[in-house]
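Researcher: I'm preparing a figure for a lab meeting and need a structural model of a single chain. I don't have an experimental structure, so a prediction will have to do for now. The sequence is pasted below. Please return the structure as tokens so I can convert it later.
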Amino acid sequence: MAKAQLDILLDKLSGRLTGDSKFYTTHRYGRTIISNYPIHKDPKSITPTQKANSSAFAQLSKQAKQELSYPDRHAYWQSLYDEYKAKLKPSDKYYVTLRGFVIAQLKKQQ
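Model: Understood. Here is the structure written out token by token.
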């Protein structure tokens, strides 16, 4: 991905430029990103394993959202997430969001 200083031009712009555009812009982590528009797979070509993984992830996401909606459970997960991040080295990869961390932990429990 190329890096460019176009923030002034694209500061308020998000999405496709035109309906048939091959590029789109988005804002992530304080940066403006220009990327190719994703080409989605034909639903007929999705395998049963992919469908099973997708539905399992959807269920875990729903469960994580429910867990984080209760203040006491949110505090519990936040403390686990803080302990997890404290053990990491600066070069280690880590879960960026608490929700991603919760989803991974719920998957491990299954």
